[in-house]
Design a protein that fits this description.
Length: about 130
């Protein structure tokens, strides 16, 4: 007998954001939106900034995510993401805008940190 549900686990650095069984899952992969039904072939996908859609007992659930990865195997979707924000259908655009803004700030801080580390390394070499 084939399984009719997908067990979804969404984890962020803060902890478990969602755990449950769904009928359908749509993720914002970096290559485009990807829909997954039960018994889909195993897949690993990189997530972009966007909104996931889960159908749980006929009810849609929207969760904004900021990057990460999804592994799907044996009707289990394990999702690791930097942030997960629950939202409503008509507020998806606002959530994406907020996630992109924070994502860009993190990227800028990462680049700035790299620059500072490079400068420190250069200064150490000057003392030698």
């Amino acid at each position: 007998m084939q399984n009719k549900k997908i067990h979804v686990s969404i984890v962020t650095p803060e902890g478990n954001a969602y755990e449950g069984d769904v009928d359908f899952l749509s993720i914002p992969a970096t290559t485009g939106s990807m829909g997954i039904l039960p018994n889909h072939i195993p897949i690993i996908a990189q997530l972009g900034v966007g909104v996931m859609k889960l159908i749980e007992n006929g009810n849609p659930l929207y969760i904004g995510v900021s990057g990460g990865f999804m592994e799907f195997i044996n009707n289990r979707a394990n999702i690791l993401t930097e942030r997960a924000i629950f939202t409503e259908y008509d507020k998806r655009g606002e959530i994406i805008k907020e996630l992109k803004k924070k994502h860009h700030i993190i990227q800028e801080l990462t680049e700035e940190t790299k620059g500072i580390l490079h400068a420190i390394a250069s200064m150490k070499r000057l003392r030698e």
